[in-house]
Structures are given as structure tokens and as C-alpha cells.
Give the backbone structure.
Amino acid sequence: MGNSYAGQLRTTRFEEVLHNSIEASLRSNSVVPRPVFAQLYLETEQPLTQNGRAENNDYDDEEEEGSDTNSPPLPYQMKPPPEGSCTTDGFCQAGRDLRLASLASAPLDVPPGFILVGVKSQSLPDHVLVCAVDHRFLPDEQGCNALLGFLGNCMGCGQQGFRYFTEFANHINLKLSTQPKKQKHLKYHLYRNNNGVLVKGAPICWRGHDCRVRQLESNLLEGQIPVEVPPPNVTHQTISYTASHVDQVSLVVDASHSVQNGCDPVPPINATSLNQAGSGRATTTGLPANAGPPKKRHKGWSPESLSTNTVSENPAKPSPQLAVPQISNGARAELETLLSSSQGSLTALSVPVLSVIVPDQLLQTCRLQPVVFKGHGPLPQFTGNTSDTLVSSLLHSCYLSSQTLPRVYQHYGPSPIQPLSTEMQILLTVYYLVQLGPEQVPLIEDLEQIFMRSWRESHLSEIRQYQQPQTPATQSRHYGLEVPAAVAGVPQHLSLPPQGQQPLTPSQLPWLAQLAASSCGEGLIVLGEQVKSLAQGLQLTFSKLMEGKLKNTSYVVIIVTQPGQETQSCVVVTGKHQCRALAESMFSPTEGLKEINQQLSTAFAQELIQYCNVLGQDGDVDSILNSATFDAIESSPVTNTQETSERSLKNTPSPKEKHRQKDSPAANSKDSPAGNSKALRIKDRVNSLKEICTEYFVQWREVRPIQLAVARKLLSHVCAIADSSTQNLDLGSFDRVSFLILVPPSEVTFQQTVFHLWSSGVLRELGTLDQECVCPRDVERYVVKMDGSAPAQIDRLIQEAHSNSYTLYILIHDHAHWDVSSATYSGSDCGLGLVDQLINSRHVRESPNILILHVTSFPFALQTQYTRISPYNEIHWPSAFSNDVDLYHERTRYFGVSELIESTRTGGSLPLMRYDSSFESMATALEERFPKLHSAVIRTIVLIQHYCIALMAASGRINSSHNLHKHTSVETLEIVQSLLTAAQQCPAHHGHMVLLRIPSFALAAWAHQRLSRVRRRLGLEDSFEIILGNPNHALNIGQTFIDRIKLWLKIEEPDWVPRTYLELEALPCILILSGAEPLGESLPRSLKYCDLRVISCSYLQRTTLEQELGLAAYLVQTESRPPQNTGPRSDSLESDAEKLSSSENEDDEGQESGNSPLSSSQQTQSCFDNAVVDPLLSQSTASTNVKKGSTDPMPTVAQPQTQPVPQLSSQSHPLPQSVQYRSQPQCQKQPQTSAASQQPVVPSVQTAQPTVPAMPQWQKSKSSSPDSRSSSPHLSCSWARGLMRPPSVLLPRALYDIITASDSSGLPRCTSFLPHISVAWASSFRPLLCKMMTCTEQSLYYRQWTVPRSYHMDTSNRTENRCDNFHPRRLLLSGPPQVGKTGAYLHFLGILSRMLIRLMEVDIFDEEEINLLSQAEGVQYHQSNTHWPKTDVMQTMPFDYNIHDPKYEDISAVYCPGYNDCIERPQIRQEDVYLRRRTSRIKLSKYAAYNTYHHCEQCHQYLGFNPRYQMYESTLHAFTFTHLLLGEEIQLYFIIPKSKEHYFSFNKHGGQLEGMRLPLTSDWSPDSIKSPIFTPTTGRHEHGLFNLFHAMDGATHLHILVVKEYEMAVYKKYWPNHIMLVLPTFFNGAGIGAAHFLIKELSYHNLKLERSRRSEGRGPGGDVWPFIILADDSCVMWNAVDLDAHNDPVEHSVSLKQVVQHMEACPDITHYSLCGIRKWSSHGLTGYKQMGPFSRGHLHDFLLLNVDRSQNVQYDQNRFTCHDVDFTLRLHSAGLLLCRFNSFSVMKKQIAIGGYRAFIIKTKMTDVPTSVGPSQYVCAPDSKHLFLATPAQLLLEKYLQHTSQKLFPLSIKNYAHPVLSVDCYLNLGSEVTVCFVSSKPHPINITTTGLLFSGLLLCFADSFVTPAFLKKFTFLKGATLCVISADRSSLRHTVGRLELEEAWRFRLSDEFQTANSKEDRPLFFLTGKHI
């Protein structure tokens, strides 16, 4: 005992010391352990540091990373590694990699009971080594229960069973100079995140025991804080405010639990997924002594040995048992649980540290409820009066989010970029709090931006390095991620030190923070060096609060920086205003309303009401009201008002108040409504019909141009969905539109939508309602309120959609941002989650005929990372103006939120948006007096009291001895005065609306009751109405006012009542609008004041703020503004002209002048009403000093005659047609007098400054008309003047400051707030919104940077780790409030219906047949009901040479004996023929042919969607045959799909195509067509009607498309399941004649092959079917005449199958060579009646060709035009039988694209214009001429058509002397008649005896044309000869062979050639004259 040690008793137990001594002796080979007794009792008393820790410890277990302990390290010599083993750092001795970066994704085998642990090595400071350790040898989350010893496995080589950590350290190559200790090197828990990657988790808590005991010793020695160690509490709860983040590295968001907005779920209690401390470092906490089994060497453990750079990267997944899902913005109900467990953070479950006693009576004493913001480190336990204190983890969540680096910086492995340190976060927080004003509330959004800016500035070079390799697309995706220019609230010089400088140390933090706080005096106090723990600082703060030492302090920042400990911090909010705002923000909106309802019935609220009723020396409100009737009789109301005003002016002490009272409306009121109320009521009852306001009008509003543009944009997006390759919408399969509109559960919104729907006429347009005048009740079934009745109506729509597959259903979700809650989180709140349950149901999503349209003014909640709406399906409302140019000629300008904000930034007059400083000061004083009452209760009671007093003061019924003006604010007084006097100025008592927004239903009901009572006591029941706007109830209006509205609108229906706010136009009223948020109610244009002074300031989301301000949105006429008066103006009669030029500041500074928005609302209103003041009158009366008592004020409102009348509706909300009424504004003219005599009240020159620069169009005026009109006050309607100005908005001061402030980008700060309560920021490292961003770019911004919360309906919209799971049939229409979205989407329904009808319709050529006079009337060859023609009768029937097809109206007539062409044909230009052809729009029948845009379910297999075969699976087959006319073999190609190969026969050996299989003539099947169908086509791969599935009515048929070689690929792409015949290459430039020639010859060749094949026994015997069908590619429908009709024949639609089968079934059909049908016409069956059911004549477009009988007559392969006329004439001349079935007709669709007639004549030189005339089509041989790149035959045909008057002058209009054409028909123009004759043997020609011909045409004359044949015909003298040959030699040979020179005279200049070069083989022709 006689040593120098003080004998201090150590706190370690004897057993632990014994174990430590034994282990030290075993492991150390040079140092002898100290005796156990000395360790227990004889330790030297060491000097203590501030935290009670000895500065010298003999055994310091922590020597790494700069530990400054004085104890020397234990010398240690590691065993040498085995020979040949690996010694590389990071690898085990077996050579396997152990680094976490290498094993992160590798599969690891962890034995049961073992966990993965991270090992730190001094040689690898940037890496963590992975090992597996038995969890029994590791401490739990409280630092306890670790067994002595070690048991671990190597995760590299897999070696197991290391019993000693020393041995294990050697194996993993730690290379230590000191003895290995598991406490020193086993650092972190490792776990796998959601992506399966192994990451570093929470630090292993080795220090829990010893450090806590030393802290307790130190605190006990100082005697500061009592020791209370309650048991650990595992319940965690936090409060959220305005913003947080969701970790982008590993999102911990699932369907049931997520990281909420400030909510910190508790990690599961297990060793494998422990979480780390909130600051990213190990949390040093303690336990009571002797709390666990002995552990190895605890003493001397230094907390500072922990890594100071550890960052929380991957928070553990929350425990399902402990995490509480949060639906609201905060949970006030569970605060008590939070207070008892205040360390609610993303940390491991640690034991609470020292407790803090909350003093009793804290709230009563300090009159505030302090809010403790958890910062870094765990908060102590709160005990005592915990209900008087609130704890929030909002700041802690902000810290965590700012320490999670964006994912872009983690893809590159180890990075020099590090997050902000703890010290820098605290210092930046202090800087931010310092710059806040005394009334400002801290916003997390600002603090997050400060953190991000500081971080970016400190790592600017590294950030640019990482951004440099990104592509431009990636940079645009991340918006550059550049450093913002400035962030509100942070000094520009404050940033992190550069990388090369010394970082901020914990020892520097306290004095730097105190230095920053010194600039604001007592506003912020920093407790740093004087406190040793958070508990001590909190206790000291509460003590000072109780002592009243923090009255002027708003914030107390507690910083604990003890050596060897982590820096800890918290912030205590002690400002009364801030505490109240933060406390109320912890309520969710629903909880806040519930709290208000409860408080309203408490004694505190009643006490407040009684307190406000007392007016001091002036008595109380009730007693004054009781004397109202007596006082009203005693004195004149005007006198009372003026006396009251004068007295109030005398009693106001300051010049500012004097100026305010001078400007009050009461001071200038000439006529008070109360004094004349009795007369008014009598007047209403007696002379109501006589008093008509001539300025009142209600105008029907058509769809505005911008609404039409938006509707068309919607339609284009729908068409884009249909045109996409995904085939998610088949518009071609729908024939009608139905819809359902979903609206929020607001009765007014419901009736409003019904009203719009009824008046729009959409239902009649859709064909839903047939009645012309229908009651609105009938359309209510198309509008659904999202309440309990909605599911039944949605289910009904789903059932209809399933049963009516041809109807497209549009589900319109209006006000779509209202309910975005998930159905699983709907809870008990009515209506929440209903949208998700119905719209996102599987039935709606999977229905192919249901299209969803979301409509909202605030789309942010639908624009998240998991949105269901594609960004390509968003439609944003366009801007109507660009550089002050009215793009849509609207003549209106939208006045919305941005314009309201802009009005606050201009001087000259009062802004439209402002706050009421008098009201704010009164409310603030009462908030301090009643701290337990919700601010909404206080503000509402105060405001209603102000309205009541203002009514009493303005009514004139209160004795002037009561000085009431000083008990209300000037703003409220002027609102009431304007309301009362507006109706007095109009003979019909039109007035204004005052909107009073009170969110609480209970408060709104109380306010309505209170105001109604005051109004009744004052006798003002007939002056104005007070309306309670409850969304759950219908409007309730007094009968007096209903009668008044009916009189205005001329409604005679006795039971009519207004159901919407729009129908209250011009009604003087106060509308108390209740509800947590507006639900889409539109307000009338008579809205003058929008009083938002009692809305909540707690929920600062962008949607919440903008939808409240959206109530004041307005459409203002732009062309009605005079040149200079742009400021707002009121009704002017109650205003003084001097007031209009004044501006006052009501701030507490007491300034007399300035640009503050605080003033009377008269300035705002007056400038706007001045919009209609005559400019000359305004300029001539610029006096600014008009006496207040002026008895004859000149009215200021006049409407010039040239002024356009403003329209009623600003939101495109028209009135019904039944109530349309309009009278032009009529004002009585008054003579212009001098300004001095009249003393008009006009604005001065000083007030003529523009108030809103965004609206310069308001100022434009063509001229100053001298014919300006003004009227007396009683004849001027204040309502009419008010139409020209937007309403004024009154806001709370706090909201006003937030909304009017701007961020660094120039945008209002509210735009950077969280966009919606149901979403969260994806990361704090996000850029700010840019001022130049478009709506589309903003959408992309929110889609990247926001994620839905767990209770958002889009949270579950993730499949297979994909975030772009868009619904294909979902659109989003967004636009500002009240801009006209309803009218736009209703019009969209109309044009969509018209488009579907248009898609179901087709333009059919509708032309009457021509040349019908040639038929001999009265001759009937067949009975009208004959089904098939008789062959013998048809042979006796004369051939009709006349052409009846209207498309050939412009060609040469074919001469027919006995036909006299007496019809004058007009001169027709060929290029006009196609354009002038008449068409009719016909609805497609079910038997129509379709183009490629049609793809219904029935057509899938037909178009190639056969499950047996893959799409595009087809084979190319060559087919060769020889033809004599061509002189060579022809090789064709067939493209045959696998599914169509059964129509062909192939060689068994090589698979060579042999031919098409043909049926027998005797074969017949009701479900098949025997004739192959050939359709030649060019240029119509998309528009050709090749889909014959419906036309064939499902019958099997062989359809072959005949295409040119260069178009083969594109046709194959669009028609993969069609057989194609590819023409040879030399036919690429050929015409339709070549295609028909090749089809016919190929078919005949195939017929011979098929006959040969059958004769060889390869098939059943019999005659092969010889017919084919040649169909035009524009044949769309077919019709048949009802032959059995008793009356006139009727034509109806039939299928192509029926037509073909009828013709194929005709008896003796094989006797006919060619059959056809007539062309359809709507002009009746004229041709059918004249020609009978069958006729012989020309056939076109749809032909049934017998290739066997017509084998000797071929199509002319060179022809481009009139080839069918030529072929028909040659068939008839060959004696073959033709028949036209007149009982059938074909409809041809007008297709403007492609076709064989669409040949363009162009030159061969590209630089020469292609417009050449017909005269240039030919030229002299061997001449220099412009050659054309056009086939020679086409040039010849076009030349003969257009120049026949020069070539055959004697033939012009000379039907009796036609041109003789031998063996061919060529079109010589409509004025020339052609007589066709055949030179073939035994021809059938017309009799030409006695016929004189005016010309002769010989085209390629063959050997049958001889001189003797030509001598049979007689020609006129001077007749023209034209001989055409292929070359000059054959031309001369023909002339010589036919001996033409004997009768015809030729000249050298009469020889021509087509304008082709030699290589193009021109044609030559020679002309001559008959001698």
C-alpha cells in the first residue's frame, strides 16, 4: 500500500481483469503483465479530461490513424509466413483476394451462426477485407455480450476454424507491428443491399461499456446532471416537414414500408443488418456497470480511433415489425412515443444516454412549445413534462440525405469526392439560421440547397471530371448538374476547403459557430465549449427558457465536440412564431383539421371569441349590434359613415394611419346601402321588372382557338398511339365514342362538369342523346363523383367495354392530382385510394378499348420515377403569347400565379397580391396570448371578427360614437365597403363576389353562422348573400337572390336553382369556401377579392400553394385596355383620387412611403377598373387633389361604342342555350365638361405606371375616341367594370414572403419546394429548376428527381427492376387553373368521335354514268328479276360502243351508228380531271376492303399473325415461261408465304415452282372463291385496299398482288402474308397495260400447265376453271340490287364473296370471255333501269376474265391510258361475248397517292424545271431538243390527247366524221370521235358505208392492214393521216407497203418523234393530208 497511487477503484470486474492478464501473458513474449491487484485497486489517479477520460492509459487498444495516446504500443513480432505463400496486402496467404471491392458481387458461403465482418488493415486504408466470424464472439448492438476469444473463417481460400485472431491476422496478411486484437481490426458489419451487392454496414460497437462508465464518473464528479438510465426503447417515430430524400443508391422503398418524408424506419434487430449512426460514424454510447460478460481489453479504448470518413451509404431495410408506414406529412398522434425514444434515426438500436427532464409548466410559463431538431448523434431520453416539447428528425434526415452521394459518382469505384463532414454541416446550419428573419421559419429545401452548393464548390474539379465523359444526352438527362449561382441563405464565401487544405476540425467548430452567431445578437445562441453532452445542453436550454432568458432567441444550437468522441449536435427552436409553425407542420392535413375541430369546442376557443368580442372602451360587438336598429333611425347612414371616418382619422396617432383612414372607402362613400336598404327591398318587390341593367350581358362562348389547338393536340397523341408499332390502340376498329368523367367528391364540381357537358353539345355530337333540348339531369350519368357510388359506375363501364368492343371508351380523370393514394394505404379516409382502386385496376388497364386521360393543373404527383404515363403522352397547355404576339388571336390574356407574383415586383400602384399587416399583427399578438390554440382557429376568429366589425362600420346603422374602424383592418373594411356599394351603383343590383377561404369545415360553419347573424341584425339580408361552400353539400341560396338571378338570366323555370358558382355571376355575396383543398370549383368573373388570410402556412408543397393561388386565376381581355392605365382599380366611387397615387408601407419599420404591398385594396382595384376609362378624359383630368367631401364625383367608367364586349366566362364555361341572354352595354352619354367643374375621380399621372409588365396588351388602344361615355353612379354597373380586372389576393405574411422570394434561377422559391405531399426527392444532390425550362423539361426534371412515397398509387408500378412501366393508353393534359381545360377535353371528345366516324367513312367516287342516251328505250332483253344472263339473248343484244364510266368523260368518244352526240362537252384540262371528280363520304360496311392501317383482331391471322408460322416467313420462287409477242423467255418471281404454299404446286425433287393450283369448273364451295384475284398496284403499299378478309366474309381465296420489282421490298414489309407476283425488271417503267398483259398471259400459261398436270393423272379429271379476277386496288365495297323488291329496286351492301360466287355460278359462264359490274353512283339506278340487269359494253375496274376464250386477244403491253377500252373493243371485234352484271356495282375509294395514273413527266436534266407542255412531248427527228425521262408510249398518248385539235382539225366536235382508228383505240381528246375497226379476219365491225372520215390513225399496223383494206373507207378532203411506228425505217416501210403516198400528201416537216433519247427508244410518227 505505500506507493504513490491514490488507490482509485477501477470499474472493471475482477473476472475481466483476470482474463485480460492471463491472455496478455499467453500472447506476449516480452512484456510481463501487471498484477491483477494493481490493475484493480492501485491505479494512479490520472488527470481527467473534459469527458472524464484519463489522458494516459497504459493499455490503449487503439493506436491506428494518428492516436495521440501516451501509452507505448506493445512490441510484437508476427510469425513469418509459410514458405511460398502469398504476402500481398489484401490477399490471404493462399493468394485469394479478400477485398470488399472484389468480393462485393461474388457468392459467398457463410456457415450458420457466422456473419460477414469487415477487417481494417493499416496497409490498405482504402479497403476493407472480408471475413466470416462467429457472431458469439462479437458484441451486440449495445456493445455487450461478446465472448472472449475468436472463431473465424477465411472467405478467400475457404479455410475454416481459426481459433485465435493472431493466427487469423497472419493468414490474411495484416502485417501488424502491434499485437493483433479483434477489437481493433474487426470494424464493420457487412450486408447485401437490395441489389445483392455486399456493402459496408454499421460499425461494430466494441466500446459500449467502458466509455459510458467514464462519462458517468465525469458527470457525477461535476454534479451537473442526475444519472437516470431507463431501459432501452425500441419504438421510433419521426416528424416530417417539407422535404426529404430517398437514397438513390439503394432505395428502401417497398409496397408496405419506405423511408418516409423525414421518417426513419427502425432497422431489424440482428447482427447481419445493423445500421450505422446518423452521422455516418460509430455512436459512442454507454451501459450501466457490470452489464455483460467480460470482454477482452476494454480499457483505454479511444473513440477518436474510429474512422472520421465513414459515410452511411446503404441504410438497412426497415423492419416490418417496427417501421410505421406514414400516409400523412407527419404524425402528431405519436409524438409521445417519439419523445420517450428520441433517437429515432437510421442508426442501430443504441441505449439512450443521459435523460433530460422537461420542466413542468413549460408551455404555460414560456408560452411556447420548443421543438428539438435531432442533428448528429443520439438525443438523450426526455422525461417529465414531455407533452410540452416536440422532437423532429427532419434536420437529421437532411443531414443523412446530403451525405449520400449521387449514383453517378459511385460508378467509378473509389473516388476522391466525399460528402460534407459533420462539422461543415453544423456550421452551414448555423449560417443558415443566422440569416433568417425574426418571423421566418427554417425550410429544409433551403438548407439542402446550401449543403449541395457548398459540396459542389468544394469538389468542382472532381465533379467536372466525372461529368466530362458523359454524352450530351446524359448531360441533358441530369441537367448538367452544374453548381447553382447562389442559394438563398448561405454566404457566397462559405464552402468546403479545397482538397489540399486542412478540413474543418471539431475543435474549430464551436468558436466558428459562435463567431457566426455573434452577428445576430440574441437571435441565435450556440452552446459549444461550455457543454459536455447534448443532455447538458438541452437541460441548460430548458432552464434558461423557464428563467425567461431566451425571450429574444429563436434558435439554440448545441454542439458537443469532446476529444475521442463523435461530434454531436441538435437545434432547439425557441422562437414563438417558429415553434408554432413547426409544431403545426407536424400535423398531416387531415390531422390538422381534426385538431382544429377539437379545439373549436374547447374553453380556449370560447375564451378567444369572448376576448375578440370586447372592443375595449367601445363596448362589445353584441351590445353594439343590439343598438343597430335604434341608431339607424336616429341618424343618416351617410352622416354616420363620414363622422365615423373623421373621428377615426382624429384618433389615429401616426401619419401612416392618418393616410390609411383618409383613403378608406367610408370616407368617400356618398350613398350607403344600409340607409337605403328598406327602399331597396321595396324597389325589388315592386319595380324589379323595370330595373334592368343595360350593361349586363351573358354571352355564349364558343370553343376558343387555344382550346381547339389543345383538343387537336390530344387527338394527335391518340393517333400517335394508334400508329405506333405496339398496336395498343386500333382506332380503325371503333365506330363510336363513349366516355366517363371522374371528378373529386365535390357537389359543386360535379354540377359544374355536368353543366359544361350539357352546354357543350358533345353528347348530341356523339349521338348519345337524340333530343335537341335535354335536361342537365340526363347527362349526370356521364359524370362520376369519386365517392362511394363510383365503383358501381366504373364497373358498369368496364362491363360495357367488354361487351362493346367497337366502342372506344374515354375515362377522363379530372383534377387528377387530388387523390393519388394507393388503395392499400387508403385507411379510413373517405375516398382516398379510390382512384387507384378503379383506374389502375387490371380490368381497366387491360381493356384495349379504354383510354385514360388525366387532366390536372398540377401534374407533379403523376411525374415521378415510377409514373404510369409516358412523357410522350403528356400534353401541356401552350402559351397564348410569344413576345406579346397573340398566337391564337384570343384577344384575352391569362392572368395566373406568375402574373400575381409579377404584380408584386412593380411599383406605381398596389399589387394584386399582398398581405394585411394590421391583421397579421393582431393575429400574432393573439397567438402569443393563446399558445395552445391552433393558428387557424385564432386567425379565423380574428378575421371573422374583422368582417363583422367592418359590416357594422360600413352599414351606417351603428352610432358614430362607436369608433369601430380601429378594431378592423383597412383591407377588410374596404372589401366590405366594396361589396355593399357595388350593388348600389347598378339598377339591377349587380355586385361582386368575395371569396373567403377557410379550410376547416367547423370553422367555416362557425364563420357562416357568425356573419349571417351580424348581417341579419344589421338588416342587410337583401344586400348580399353569404354562402357556405361545402364540397359535400349542394349550394344553398336564399330565394330572394335566386329570383334575382332568374330575372337576370331570363329563366322562367319555377324550380330552377343555381348549382354552380358560375351561375352566381354578378351576385353580391361572400363565398366561404371550405375543405382541405379546392376540388376544381370554378368561380365567376365577378370575383373581386380572394381572401386567403387564414389558409395554412404549414404544408409548403408546390401543389398546395399553387392550387390556392389558382382560385384567383382569370382571363382578361387584352384589346380593351387604354394606352396608359394598367394598374388595378376599384369601383372608384368610394376611393379618393389622391389615394390612387399614393403607396404606403405598413411594415413595423414605420416608413411613410415605399413599394410595400400593404395598403388599401382600392389601389389595386382602381387601376384595373381604369381599363375602361376614356383616355382623353383621363388625360384632361389629371388633378391629384380631390377633396374627400366632394358631393358630385364624376364616374370614371365608360365604355366606348367601339369597344368589344367582354365575354362572361374566363374558363370556357358557357351558359346553357336556354339561358342565353345578351344586351349590348348601353350607357347614357353626357356632355363633356371641364375637369374643374366636374372634378372627376380619375387616377393621376403618377398612377399611370404599368403594374403588371407581363400584360402590355392591356394598354393597347387604336385611338382615343372622343365619343367616350360615362354615366352617373346609379346608372353605372360596377360589375361590368370589374370584368376587366383580375381579383385581388390577400395572403398570410409568411406565405407572401415565401411566394414572392426568388431562388438563384429567378424562379419563385415555391417552385423548388417538394411538388406534392405524396412524393419525395430522390436525392438532395439535385439541380434547381431553371427559369427557361419548358413544361416538358419540368416534367422530365420531376420524373428524374422525385419518387413516390409508399402510399402513392404509382409505388407499385415497378416490374422487373424497370421504372418505365408506362401504360400505353394513358394521357396527361396539364394546364394552369381556370384556363379552359374542361372545354378543351370536351371538344376533344367531339373531334375524336368525328375522326372515328371519318375513319369508318371513305370518300367514294360518286358520278353518274355518261352517254346513256344511246340505249334504245323500250327494248327489254331480260326481265328485271333475272339472276343470270342468257347466252342466246346476250348474243342478240347489240354491243354498246359508248363509254359510260364517268372517269372517261374527257376521252374520245367511240363512234356508234345511230347515236347523235348532241351534248356540249366543256373544255377540260387533263390535270383538273382528278381534282374535280365528285365524291361522297360513305360509311364503311362490314364487307369493306381495307388498307394497311386496319388491324382488328379478326384480321391478325389474315395479315400474317398466324401462330403456326412466323411473321415475314415467305419464300421467293422463280417462274419462267415463253411468250411469242415478247420474243424471249419471261422470268417472274413469286413471293409466297409459308401459310399460302398450298395454293401452288412444286416439283417434288427440287421444290421448283410449277404453277398455281386451279379448281375444276364443277367444283363449288360456299366458303371459297374459285377465281384467283390479281391486283396490280404501284405506289400504294400503305393505302392500297388489299385486305379482303372482311370483303370476302371469311371465304378462302387466292389473292395475288402484282408489284414492280423496285417496290417488292416495301410491299413485302407492309403485307407479309400476301402472295406477290413481281414483274420483270424491264417493266419497272411500264404502265397498267403491261401488268394486265403479263397477268393474262401468265394465267393462260398456268391454265395449260394445270390441264396438263391433271391429264397426267396428278389430279382429278375434268375441265379446269379458266377465270381470273382483275381488280383495281381502290375497290372498297360492293353493292347489289334487290331483285325481289316489289317497288323500285333498292341497292344494298354485299360482300365480294357474294358478288363473285354469283357470277361464278352463272350457267354457261364459260361462254363469256369477259364479265364485269357497273360503277356505283348515288344518283339512283339510272343505268340499271335503262340497260336492264345485263348489258354488252365496256367493262372497267373489276373484271372476271376468261383466259381460255380470250387467249388470242391480248392487252396492249405498251399502253398507259385507256387500255381497258382498247381491250374491250378488240375483244368484241373478235366475236367474243362480254357481259356486264348491272345488278352489282363496285365502289371505288378516292386514293390521292400512287396508282398507275400518277406518272410524272420530267426532264432528264435535274437542273431544268420539270413543267413542260404537251407540245414539247414530241420533236423533229435528229433535232436538239430537251429530252424527257418518260416512257415514249406515255409521251405519245399524252401528246395525242392534248394536241388533237392541231393534228385532226377536221375532227373537232364533228361526231358525224370520226377519225378512223385501225386495230387500236387511242385517246385523241374529248372533242374528237374515234371509229374503231379491226383488220383481223372475220371481224365484227360497224357498218361504214357512206361514212366520211376526217382522219386515219395507224398505230403499229400489222400485216392484216393492207392497201385493199384501207381503200374500203372514204375520207374527207384534207383529212389527216397519222402513222405510228417503232422506228424511222419501219415508218417508211409502212408508208410504202400500204401505198399511202397515192392518196396522202407528206412533207419532210411532218415527221416527228417522241422527246426521248436514243437509248430510251423513241416512237416515230408521220402525218399527212388526204388529197
